[in-house]
Amino acid sequence: MIIACGARTRALVFVLLTSTLLLVIALCHKRGGRLEPLQRPTGPPRPGNGPQPSIRPAPDNATNTSGKQWSSVWSRVPCMGPRGFNIDEANNDTLSESIINGLEYPRPFVGSHEAVGLSQTWMTAAARYGPYGWGDDQMEKKAPWNEVDWAKLQNQCIHSNAHGFHDATMIRPFGRRFRMREPGEEIKSPVIEPQAADYVPRTAIVLRAWEGYNYIAKDLANLRATVAETALRFGAEYTVYILVDVKDTGRNIFANDENYRRAIEELVPREFWGMAILFDETLLKSWYPNIKTHGATYQIMQPLQLFAHFYPEFDFHWQLELDVRFTGHAGRYLTALSDFARKQPRKQAIERSTWYYMPEFHGGYSDLLGAVNASLEGRGGLGWGMRIQDFEPAGPKPPVKDPLADNFEWGVGEEADLIAFTPCAYMPSLKHWVWRNWQQGLKAGTKTPGWMCQPAMGRASRTLLLAVHHAQAVQGIAMHSEATLSSFALWHGLKLVVPPHPIYQDPQWPRSKMNELFNGAGAVEAHRTQGMEGMAYGDAIYRQADYEYIATSASFWYTSDFPNRIYDAWLGRGGSQGGDSSSLEVPYVLWKSRDGEVYAPNMILHPVKTNQNRPLDSSGDPPWLVIAGVAVSLLGLSAAGLWWWKRRSWGRYSAVRTEEVGK
């Protein structure tokens, strides 16, 4: 018995120690197999002792994006800013962007300013946020921000420009348009209504917030900038709302007006009260009772779907998180993305949406279009007349039966139903995305082709959102948050575009390797994997777990800390650790002049966390892997110690028994 027990224990210890050793080897191998970054980052040159680059104001044609001229009879009426001046006239209510001669613009990791139509301007944080209260403690004339009512300013702007809109419905401060679903309430299938040529489509910018969000000075300056640079600067073509997730259902926000108003006053800064909209889980359950879960991780689009249902005056909806930052003019950036999307053809749009555009390998964006077309041999791709079993598509039918007869004309000049921020991935081929098989209600189950576009932000048409709303509320069909809009756009034959906006990377790796990892090996024309013809297929996307450390080095990626480092250095804190930035090196994408001013290029950052809203550092190996390694190691050491201690006891016990037997 003693010998058998010892053998089992020794076997257990052997297994534990072997597992620990194998895990350590795996971790070391994983680190040893990591790509080596470039020794010196490529970016703007550091001026030495020679002449300093010259800084001059950006000309109007580099900073003003007017967008499409929707009607010859409509012209924007300037709108009043928070200090009582028209937003186009007062120097303290407009931005001062700069062109820096003699300084090379930083080269993005993917994307292109030229391709999207973004200006290559520079800005300091003071110029960017000064008009919106950043540094007010150092100004002689401060704006009384607690007295500013951004909903009122937006309504004045809507009223002044009402002649340009088909429906000029204004913001209703504290008004509860969201309501519970009535028993047996009918929900109609979405129908595409052609955009009236004589009217400007209205776009809602919906900023996602939640109960407990900690608004600090930087958040407030960013919110003010977003409203001023979109709604007020573009003549009410945009309207900005804050959509607040009320976690405490005990507030009973839909019981009466008083509860609703009290929650807004407690959860949202005063100057934004009028543009706040509240929802909670009880509302989502009321409208989507057959969906398994309503949390933001799985169904972040459900509140936006209800917004489209209850706010019919809007044609399009940008959903942005509060941790998004524009280092340049927010309105011009968003307008450039929508202008780019409008110019794109429908043919092969889904296939193009999978590519990480790198000009040094793909040429101009039109060259990428041609290369994808070659890989598809001129066919229409998945977006040409696709059908699934669950419903009839809401989108238009192709103008010609044979896609070879369409010379990339269909869809040009048509607004996109979905504008995503990063390329999409074909779900059936994903290896490491944990939600790749999460779906509900589809007749073909996981065999239904789906698409995932991270993160769950972008611009969606009312048609697309109502299509998802109907499928979830009536049919109980659902996909994961990051696959919802892209998959439904595909199924309904709606236009999907991923503008190749510039994204930076730190540390930087060899670009040829990045092209291979994000797009796949070989020329674009050679991408003809069955079922994925014309699509990018890189391991960094389809096997994310193995290359997480690369994805988390991007200036736009939901788990990256690089945006924080850029933003902190730009605002003068010298990096994420805080402190004076005057003597510290800034990230390569920024430029610090001889007098200590830090300039940022025109880009979008995500995520930028502030104070309590900032997560723990996620760099390096996944936390679960580190924790598992430590746990197994400790378990192995504990077992080894126990085995050693018991072995000593067994020896003493055997000796005593021998003596007793001898007696």
From TrEMBL:
<keyword id="KW-1133">Transmembrane helix</keyword>
<keyword id="KW-0472">Membrane</keyword>
<dbReference type="InterPro" id="IPR021822">
    <property type="entry name" value="DUF3405"/>
</dbReference>
<keyword id="KW-0732">Signal</keyword>
<feature type="signal peptide">
    <location>
        <begin position="1"/>
        <end position="26"/>
    </location>
</feature>
<dbReference type="Pfam" id="PF11885">
    <property type="entry name" value="DUF3405"/>
</dbReference>
<feature type="transmembrane region" description="Helical">
    <location>
        <begin position="624"/>
        <end position="645"/>
    </location>
</feature>
<feature type="region of interest" description="Disordered">
    <location>
        <begin position="35"/>
        <end position="68"/>
    </location>
</feature>
<protein>
    <submittedName>
        <fullName>Uncharacterized protein</fullName>
    </submittedName>
</protein>
<feature type="compositionally biased region" description="Pro residues">
    <location>
        <begin position="42"/>
        <end position="56"/>
    </location>
</feature>
<keyword id="KW-0812">Transmembrane</keyword>
